[in-house]
Specification:
Number of strands of chain A: 0
Number of helices of chain A: 15
Oligomer: heterodimer
Order of helices and strands of chain A: HHHHHHHHHHHHHHH
Low-confidence stretches of chain A: 343-353
Radius of gyration of chain B: 19 Å
Largest sheet of chain B: 2 strands, antiparallel
Radius of gyration of chain A: 21 Å
Mean pLDDT of chain B: 90
Helix content of chain B: over 70%
Low-confidence stretches of chain B: none
Distance between the termini of chain A: 53 Å
Chain lengths: 353, 304
């Protein structure tokens, strides 16, 4: 009996071991290519992700994971409902832009401005996501391409607004004015970590409760697993689709607001697009096969990969872009081990072309 | 506005914009017909653009550049096939990973090899020069479009009828279609559908690589991070709209390329660059809506 179990454990562990070795070999090859000292690179990675004086780099990792986990939660709600919303980037940009503009333009007590700005950001994200939903449901544009194509117009709209009408001309950069200092998120005492991560924590709690214990969450999951079944038992599929997208978009919009009030304190052209927060969020969800409780962990993991890569650059001169390569390779290897079942529902879902 | 479109130099600039979209879309069409849902064309184009600069810089000739780009694209096709076809990873997941991999590899090697971030331009990057076609260049209207273009454009143009005949007549073309439509029948005929899909992906990589070469060593002589800038996604839309048929694909690519070119031209009218930049994506969305509306109407007409 014991021997049998051990054999089984070996059989299921062995492919993972090979996966690990493959990924390690690829990382090693990249390090050798740039001629970096491997030991220093690895210790630099560890220090960059979790170390630093008074844990400064760990705080940077947490700060980054506030955004990545937020985007991952947003994407998770859509993916679990069978909706290939890969337009998180556009919803994020819409949120960040609106948050910054509201805070710059609106008079009034700072706390009120902050609350209104965050709510407006969530609304903006939700509307941008809904637009993709409307395009799919009523105009025959598959969500997969519709949501993606919508990333570009909002990116350019944001770029235009902070380049022309709302530009902080004196700064000489393409960016909005600073939001009032009273609205900036406070730092946790003794750190450089802003409280934005608390918003992500609330969103995570909400998303988990929603996914595991609410009727609505259950219904959307049914829709994701089998749209035909959902339709047959009379679930309001269209309404569920639009509601789910609005929810996803609202979370993405909130993440945009976190980036504004917690990190940049203004909208800078490209600040939400260039670090690929939205795409990292997507792969964080895919890494764990859309299992809700594991999504925050995997989001944190990818944040650590990115800040760790920055540490590796400081310590051993390895271009920090190695993080992207490593993330992609991990997803490639894991994709074939953890079933995401995304394409299956593409064929019988609303993803018709 | 009208003078702008009637301007012959506008017409002559269209092929520059059509070529990358058309080549990527033809590659995507091969995958689509073979039953591989490849939405990583963006990544394929990007890798092609970078590899083209790499090859052209170190060899000093654009031909080696284009060849490098095609080989790099084929290698990426192999990676896609390994994880999607052989290991059975979900095609959307693999596509997203390939797109990120492309973004990562190009920025990583941009710094590792050329020690720059953002963009790399150097006089040593050998670009394609325009090919003038005698007699054809004197034809009014079509002359300036057909003559004086780059090699990838002519190859793209030739690929359309070639792929049409290939898919309709050639043994491998038929096998590709069988792999997409009825893999069991193909297996019964003693041919592995997976092998056919692998070949389709490798060919797709070659076509996309050439498309990338057009971006980086024909239109300009430099590489910019993320320089594919959504054209691969527009190609994906073109493939979906035409279900991978070469001739319809050609016209859709022509349309998207013309809008792309137009958006470049109207910058001269004083419209903010951001608005002209978003035109190709809006046009793509409009075409998607219009075609689906037209199809729905036709379906309704058939039913009554």
């Amino acid at each position: 009996m014991m021997a049998f179990d051990a054999g089984k454990a070996t059989r299921s562990a062995l492919p993972w071991l090979f996966t690990f070795l493959w990924i390690a070999a690829i990382i090693l090859a990249l390090l050798l290519f740039v001629g970096a000292p491997v030991g220093e690179a690895l210790s630099g990675f560890w220090n960059g992700a979790f170390g630093g004086r008074r844990n400064a780099y760990l705080m940077a990792t947490l700060s980054r994971s506030a955004l990545i986990v937020g985007m991952a939660l947003s994407v998770m709600l859509s993916f679990r409902a069978g909706l290939f919303n890969i337009g998180g980037e556009g919803q994020l940009v819409a949120g960040g832009l609106v948050a910054a503009l509201v805070a710059v333009l609106m008079p009034g007590p700072p706390l009120l401005v902050l609350v209104v700005a965050i709510l407006a950001a969530m609304l903006a994200g939700a509307l941008w996501a809904l637009l993709a939903g409307v395009l799919q449901l009523f105009m025959g544009v598959p969500l997969l391409v519709g949501s993606l194509l919508l990333n570009y117009p909002i990116r350019y709209i944001a770029s235009y607004l902070v380049a022309h009408p709302y530009r902080d001309v004196q700064s000489g950069m393409v960016q909005s004015h600073l939001v009032p200092q009273e609205t900036w998120f406070a730092y946790f005492p003794g750190t450089r970590l802003d409280i934005g991560i608390l918003f992500t924590a609330v969103a995570a709690a909400f998303a988990l409760i929603y996914s595991y214990w609410t009727v609505h969450g259950y219904q959307t999951r049914l829709n994701g697993l089998s749209p035909e079944f959902a339709r047959t038992v009379g679930l309001p599929v269209r309404r569920l689709t639009l509601q789910t997208l609005a929810l996803s978009g609202a979370i993405a919009g909130m993440v945009g607001a976190i980036a504004v009030f917690g990190i940049h304190h203004r909208y800078i052209d490209g600040m939400l697009v260039q670090p690929l927060y939205a795409w990292t969020g997507i792969i964080a969800v895919l890494l764990v096969g859309m299992v809700p409780w594991a999504v925050p962990i995997s989001g944190f993991f990818f944040a650590a990969v990115q800040t760790g890569a920055a540490g590796m650059e400081r310590a051993a001169g390895v271009p920090k872009e190695i993080a992207l390569v490593v993330q992609a390779v991990i997803i490639l290897f894991v994709a074939s081990r953890v079933s995401g079942a995304l394409t299956a529902s593409r064929n019988d879902g609303d993803g018709h072309v | 506005m009208f003078e702008l479109i009637a301007d012959p130099s506008f017409a002559a600039s269209i092929p520059r914009f059509v070529t990358p979209i058309l080549l990527a879309a033809l590659g995507g069409a091969l995958c689509e017909r073979a039953g591989v849902f490849n939405i990583a064309l963006e990544g394929f184009l990007l890798v092609g653009a970078f590899a083209a600069v790499l090859g052209a810089y170190f060899s000093g000739t654009p031909y080696i550049g284009a060849l490098t780009a095609m080989v790099a694209g084929m290698a990426l096709g192999l990676v896609f096939a390994e994880f999607n076809v052989r290991r059975g990873g979900d095609s959307i997941v693999v596509s997203i990973a390939i797109n990120l991999l492309a973004a990562g590899l190009t920025t990583f090697f941009l710094r590792a090899i050329f020690d720059v971030t953002g963009a790399f331009s150097d006089p040593a990057i050998a670009g394609f020069s325009p090919i003038r076609l005698p007699f054809i260049e004197d034809v009014p209207l079509l002359g300036p479009i057909l003559s004086g273009q780059s090699l990838p454009f002519y190859l793209a143009l030739l690929s359309v009828p070639f792929l049409h005949v290939f898919l309709a007549r050639h043994r491998l073309g038929l096998r590709i279609r069988a792999a997409g439509e009825n893999p069991q029948a193909l297996r019964a005929g003693g041919v592995s559908p997976k092998r056919v899909q692998l070949l389709a992906l490798v060919a797709c990589g070659a076509l996309c690589g050439l498309g990338g070469a057009q971006l980086s060593i024909a239109n300009v002589n430099l590489f910019v991070e993320n320089m594919s800038a959504g054209r691969g996604w527009i190609a994906v839309v073109a493939v979906l709209l035409t279900r991978g048929r070469p001739w319809p694909l050609f016209f859709i690519a022509l349309l998207f390329g013309a809008v792309d070119s137009l958006s470049f031209r109207v910058q001269g009218l004083g419209l903010a660059q951001q608005f002209t930049d978003m035109m190709p994506y809006l046009a793509t969305l409009i075409v998607l809506v219009a075609l689906s509306w037209w199809r729905a109407r036709r379906a309704k007409g058939d039913a009554s």
